[in-house]
Amino acid sequence: MKMLNIIIISVLLISTNVLLLDEEILILICFILFCWLAFNQLSISIEKDLQTQSLKIEKSITDSLVQVSKSIKELLRYKKNSLKFAANFELLNIYLFNFTKVLIQNLPNYTIYKFNLVFPKRLNFVQRLEHQVSKIVVLFIIKKLNQIILIKPFFNKKIKVTNFLCFYKINMREYIEII
């Protein structure tokens, strides 16, 4: 429709001799017709091509914006977590300091308590051991004295050692006095 209007206006201008019909005008008219036909024929495919390219660009931009948004959210989450991590380490430091302080304060009491638990048992064991050793020593001494008593008459009568003879005579006097 637009082209028809342009043709009618051109014919009117040529017929009124406003435009001269020469080679240059014919070339110009041919060029304009070519451009108009090319535009009409190719405009749909160019428009589709531009539409697909614009959709691709739009999709690419939205995808990149979504990716940037995810990256920013992830970065913010990491930053938030790192701040929490640092705060948790600070709390852990405080708890560890307090724990060490309480441990150092209570360690002597704990060692005394453990010593008081173990020491009576060890003391009791040592007392029992001492009692048993004293029994063994007493039994050993009694056995040795018994042996000496049994050997004493032998030395008095058979070997006649002067010390033993003296002891023998002293013992005899004591017996006589007792009787």
Q: What can be said about this structure in brief?
A:
With 179 residues, the chain is mainly α. The protein has 3 helices and no strands. It has helices at 2-15, 23-159, 162-178.
Describe this structure in words.
The protein is mainly α and 179 residues long. It has one domain (2-178). The protein is built from three helices and no strands. Helix 2 (23-159) packs across helix 3 (162-178).
Calculate the mean pLDDT score and round it: 85
Structural class label: mainly alpha
For the termini, the CA-CA separation is: 174 Å
Coarse shape:
rod-shaped
The helix/strand series, from N terminus to C terminus, equals HHH
GO biological process, one term: proton motive force-driven ATP synthesis
InterPro entries: ATP_synth_Bsub_B/MI25
Organism: Asparagopsis taxiformis
GO cellular component, one term: proton-transporting ATP synthase complex
Descriptors:
rod-shaped, mainly alpha, single chain, 179 residues
Give a topology summary.
Elements: H1 2-15, H2 23-159, H3 162-178
